[in-house]
Design goal:
- There is one protein chain.
- With 165 residues, the protein is mainly alpha-helical.
- The protein is built from 3 helices and 3 strands, in the order βββααα.
- β2 and β3 form a beta hairpin.
- α1 packs antiparallel against α2 and α2 runs antiparallel to α3.
- The longest helix is centred in the middle third of the chain and has 38 residues.
- The radius of gyration is 25 Å and the shape is elongated.
Length: 165
């Protein structure tokens, strides 16, 4: 019988591949790791959600805060920092769970050993993508870092009296 345990429910699979899941009914789960993991993941999701809206307001392709280049850059950097914090929350949670699994695995004579599951790998990937996206948003939002060659200038004509189409 395989037992799969997560932040929100515990599932068991018998030899006939039937899966039975029991959701945790209380937020006061007996395990400290699960309670802290839940709080950190909820915080990570909230920071990402706020980071999306703040980051969108600071993008140069949006009409929000037009004409306020410095303020727009600060807003975009703030959105990037929120994404970085969100990624660090998720990374710390998944790292802590993996540490606990490895520590339990190294104990001898334990019948029900835990394995590193797909959700932990997904947590790592999501955390790294959040951090990477936040760093990119912070770096690319600086107006003075953008090259002036990217800005299109109107062409200069030799004869200004004629309209060229």
């Amino acid at each position: 019988m395989d037992i799969i345990e997560g932040l929100w429910m515990k599932c068991s699979m018998d030899s006939s591949s039937q899966v039975k899941c029991i959701s945790y009914n209380s937020f006061l789960h007996p395990s400290v790791e699960v309670r802290v993991g839940r709080a950190m993941m909820i915080l990570s999701i909230a920071l990402s959600g706020i980071g999306v809206f703040v980051g969108l307001a600071g993008l140069s392709c949006t009409k929000c805060l037009d004409g306020e280049d410095r303020l727009k850059d600060k807003v975009a950097v703030t959105g990037g920092c929120l994404f970085i914090l969100s990624g660090l929350c998720a990374l710390s949670t998944t790292s802590w769970f993996i540490y606990e699994i490895v520590a339990d695995f190294q104990k001898e004579k334990q019948e029900n050993r835990k394995d590193i599951g797909r959700s932990l790998f997904a947590g790592f990937i999501a955390a790294f993508l959040c951090v990477f996206g936040g760093v990119l948003l912070c770096i690319c939002s600086k107006t003075h870092l953008r090259s002036s060659a990217n800005v299109s200038k109107p062409p200069k004509f030799k004869n200004p009296d004629k309209d060229y189409v």
